[in-house]
Write a structure and sequence with these properties.
By secondary structure, the protein is α+β, with helices and mostly antiparallel strands. The protein has four helices and twelve strands. It has a twelve-stranded mixed β-sheet with strand order 7-8-9-10-11-1-2-3-4-5-6-12.
């Protein structure tokens, strides 16, 4: 059930939203962050349980970044496996579709001229525009993080980098927690390589960075329903 992944996609989007090649997306030059993902709960009688791992690599202050994620979710005894890779490279976004064995490419200019131009905002701008507030500062894994809260989502952010997230939406608890953090390290260029799939350019792709258009619409509708509570 794809819509059940929207929360984790939104959380990652907060950390990967400034696509201008002239902007320092993070206050750290380079880094490797490994995450553990857990999901559990009961949504309208459907019991769910999931787990996964994710890794974010970045250099050049985040203007080159690769995020990979693998997870599996079991709903009412049925298990769904998912694998994703998204890369930002100085203003261009590449999203790997392992089912179709294709890579979708979208430039920052194309994003700016589309209905998805909000992805050009910074993570904090998105949080504020959606009612998010900085509620505290806490130390996590030795890092002094800003804690942001938006509806039922809490994010721990260090110098623009998402370190931890917690959410409880529609009875589903989702946590993404860094278990290994390396900052200001040298990362071999080959670690940013994408699979050897053909690349589709332009706006005809059915994949957007981190979210498909359908997922974006689902997320918007979900957020509207929460705001009416």
């Amino acid at each position: 059930m794809k819509h059940l992944k929207l929360l984790s996609l939104l959380i990652i989007a907060f950390a990967t939203t400034t696509l201008s090649a002239e902007t320092k997306r993070y206050e750290i030059k380079s880094g490797i962050i490994e995450y553990t993902i857990t999901l559990s709960g009961d949504m309208m009688g459907m019991k769910m349980k999931g787990k996964g791992t994710a890794t974010t690599l970045f250099k050049e202050w985040g203007n080159v970044e690769l995020h990979s994620e693998e997870s599996k979710t079991t709903t009412m005894g049925m298990t769904e496996h998912n694998r994703e890779i998204t890369k930002i490279d100085n203003g261009k976004v590449y999203s790997v579709d392992f089912d179709q064995k294709v890579i979708y490419e979208l430039s920052a200019d194309a994003l700016d001229n589309s209905e998805h131009k909000d992805l050009m905002q910074t993570g904090k701008e998105i949080l504020i525009s959606m009612g998010g507030k900085k509620i505290a500062e806490e130390k996590f894994m030795g890092y002094n993080c800003e804690v942001w809260e938006m509806m039922n989502v809490k994010l721990w952010i260090y110098k623009g980098i998402m370190i931890k997230s917690e959410a409880n939406i529609m009875g589903i608890k989702n946590m993404t927690v860094a278990n290994k953090i390396e900052l200001d390290v040298s990362i071999p260029d080959e670690r940013f390589n994408l699979p050897n799939f053909p690349i589709q350019k332009g706006q005809k792709q059915d994949k957007m960075p981190q979210m498909t258009p359908e997922q974006m619409l689902q997320m918007q509708e979900m957020m509207k329903s929460f705001s009416k509570r």
